[in-house]
Amino acid sequence: GENVEQHPSTLSVQEGDSAVIKCTYSDSASNYFPWYKQELGKGPQLIIDIRSNVGEKKDQRIAVTLNKTAKHFSLHITETQPEDSAVYFCAASKGYSTLTFGKGTMLLVSP
Amino acid sequence: NAGVTQTPKFQVLKTGQSMTLQCAQDMNHEYMSWYRQDPGMGLRLIHYSVGAGITDQGEVPNGYNVSRSTTEDFPLRLLSAAPSQTSVYFCASSRQANTEAFFGQGTRLTVV
To answer: Chain-wide mean pLDDT for chain A?
Structure first.
């Protein structure tokens, strides 16, 4: 089955800095790569996703890049703010909406 | 707009007891799934359904049963609770494959 590795497990940055979270996947048939943000006591919420026919996608301060050859994808958050502090999960899927998640990255943005 | 509703939010069970975690969605989504979240383990798929009457196993199905008699509801049954099933359980739904999954608020289950 699919295996998704996510790094780092924790990330501390100063407000205004950029944050990068990286994921690798094992199944070359995977074609959908979403990123979820989970705040304390809540369920995960989609923040951005990318499909295998696209190399990069951007939404305001958030961007995701995908390298199909190397089987890795990354989340980039620019101009970080304290409200960006949360746990971020990457995931991969190749159909039936059965997402395989990475183990998560706890992002702490200090004022 | 309720989205995905899970009940209860918290539950304590004794070893060997059975219970059902409820999940309902009001978005007319075909796909529904159950995940468990343990510290340092991310979210792991227990069971999923691609439509009413159709269910399949995920990565960690042992000890759990599901059924999908309606589009809206996808209950998760613990047959004989064990301490290893102490976890936070999330239900999710999506319109179709490879689209946004909407998660409920979770059920925190403790088995003593």
So the answer is: 95
